[in-house]
Structure formats: C-alpha cells, structure tokens
Amino acid sequence: EFHMSVHGVPWMPIPTDWTRYMVVDPGHQVCAALFAAVPPDEKDAVYLYDELYIKQCDAGKFGEAVGHKVGGQVFHAFLMDSHMALHTEMGIGQTVEAQYAAALRERNIRSEITGSRFLLASDDRQGGLLAVHGWLRLRVNGKPKLRVLAGVLPNFEWEIKRYHKLRVKGQVTDKPHQRGNVHTMDCLRYLAMYDPRYSKPRKSKEPLGGAVKAYREKKNRLRDGETAMIRLGPGKG
User: Fold this and answer.
1) Res. 216 pLDDT band, cuts 50 70 90
2) Nearest CA-CA partner of 109 in 152, 46, 65, 153
3) How far is CA 106 from CA 53, 77, 102, 215, in A?
4) How confident is the model at residue 162 (pLDDT cuts 50, 70, 90)?
5) DSSP three-state, residue 98
6) In what order do the strands lie in the sheet with 119-121?
7) Number of neighbouring beta carbons within 10 Å of residue 19
8) Contact 26, 62 (CB under 8 A)
C-alpha cells in the first residue's frame, strides 16, 4: 500500500506555523523516533519530516541526538511506547520514560502540552494498523493523509517496504510480523492512533544577539563571584 511515488513529497523546510510532534519507540538495541508536522491549511494531512535511529541507545544518547536534531523547533507533544515507557530498569529505579524525560529536561527540550515528559501511546496494535491503513488510502482530493519527505527518512522507508503480516504454518494471519526492524513502524502506529491535529504553535524565542548574550554572561559570572570585562561596542574584544 505504501510507495514513495504516492506518499512521498519533495523535501522542504517545515514552516514554523505547522504543529510538530515527536513519537519515540525506546530501546537499547535500537531507539527510533519519528518527527511529524500538521499544516494549518490541510486538515487531512500529516507530514513525516525527520527520524532518529539510534543503536545501542540509552537516555543520554537519546537526549544528545534529539538536541542536535530539533534545534529550536517548537513541539506540541511528545509520545512514547507505553510498554517500554513504564518499564523500570534494575539498578536505576526509574522508568524509561522518566529517564528520557530527564535527558530532554537537561537540554531544555520541551513541548507545549507535555513539557519534557511523554504521553503514553496506545498499545492497541490492531487499532493502530487500521489507523495507518486509513492514512495510506487516497482521499477524495487524490492524496493520502500520510506524506513522507523524500530523502530524509531512510530507515522508515526501509522498514515500511518490508513490513508484512505474520505467517503461521504457511497461513497468512491478520497480525503483523513484529520481529526484526519494525521500530519506526511502531512509531507510525502510535502516531496514527493519537491522530495528531493542528494547533497553532507558540512563537519560538529569537536567539540573543551577540552583545546581549555577552552582557548576560558577564552578569552571571559576576553573580558567581568572578570578575570580567566585556566590550559591547565595535572593535576588538
């Protein structure tokens, strides 16, 4: 049902007034994340515009990778696989969700409705598959709801082209084959079940100019008991 000739769109920068979501399938062997955006002028469209595929992952690696990836983007919500999210690792005493949220908080990465925490995604696998099927079908306008930016989600494209139903004793069942690399497929199910909608994002803060940033850094150093001199005008520092 999926083909880039139908569901793919040319790469483009995602406008700042689109609503962004991040959905995560955590795991040590592979942690996957999909980044999705909903435009204000298309009520029946969801664009996948980026991905993460982190091998041998932990919360620290996840936070670092997201920090490099999102760079000032404004998100509406973060979602996570509910089973793994509530798993408590031995020796740490914290759930996976709490560890990943702390890694985002350390880097001041937040969403509008969840902060650095995550909404728990629905674990209804069959319902998720039906929702994805609905996204893949063509609408009356001749376009599917799911749109994938070309050239930036290689792992997603690789997985969805190989995703298939489980065979039991040679018979095809109505259940998906969940072994192997299906990490972004799980993310897609969670996203489709959540059914992301458009919500006008808040404006991101403009980056500080050089002089203002330097002045604030000087104030912080003085507050901490250091002495410092700084030049705010033209000329050599």
Assistant:
1) low
2) 65
3) 21, 18, 6, 24
4) confident
5) helix
6) 8-9, 146-149, 46-55, 30-38, 19-25, 75-81, 119-121
7) 21
8) yes
